[in-house]
Every structure is written in C-alpha cells, then in structure tokens.
C-alpha cells in the first residue's frame, strides 16, 4: 500500500490474498472475481503474467487478458 500511496494511486478497495493462503493463483483469482467483481464492475482488460491464470481469464471467464510477461513460474 505504501507504493500506491507514494505514487498517488487511488483505490477504493485492495483485495489481497490472506496470509497463509497457498491455493493456486488461478483458483484464488477466479474466486475473488466471482465473489467481489463479477456483476459489479465492467472489466475491459485483465493484466496477468502466469500462463495458467492468463488461460483462466481468457478461456473460463471470457475476459480479455494482456499477458504482461512470458515464462513458466
């Protein structure tokens, strides 16, 4: 949050993975989207870097996703 405040990036909410939560990123992000975003906000584009998460955004949720980095990690 310090980075956002330092660079004057405003936000109303900042959902973050709970401490100790080690489920796959694609599962966590899908759940977050379904519970807190879907039906409430228009999502024109999703940035992500992990192959499996990019596939989830594009194939499962039918959202345009910009893959910001390429590589298996």
From TrEMBL:
Q: Which Pfam families did the record assign?
A: HAD_PNKP
InterPro entries named among the record's database cross-references? HAD_PNKP, HAD_sf
Residue ranges occupied by any Polynucleotide kinase PNKP phosphatase domain in the UniProt entry: 4-73
Q: What is this protein called?
A: Polynucleotide kinase PNKP phosphatase domain-containing protein
User: What organism does this protein naturally occur in?
Assistant: Niabella ginsenosidivorans
């Amino acid at each position: 949050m310090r980075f956002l405040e330092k660079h004057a990036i405003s936000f109303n909410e900042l959902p973050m993975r709970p401490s100790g939560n080690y489920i796959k990123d694609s599962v966590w992000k899908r759940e977050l989207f379904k519970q807190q975003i879907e039906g409430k906000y228009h999502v024109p584009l999703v940035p992500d870097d992990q192959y499996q998460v990019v596939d989830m955004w594009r194939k499962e949720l039918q959202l345009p996703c910009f893959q910001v980095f390429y590589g298996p990690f």
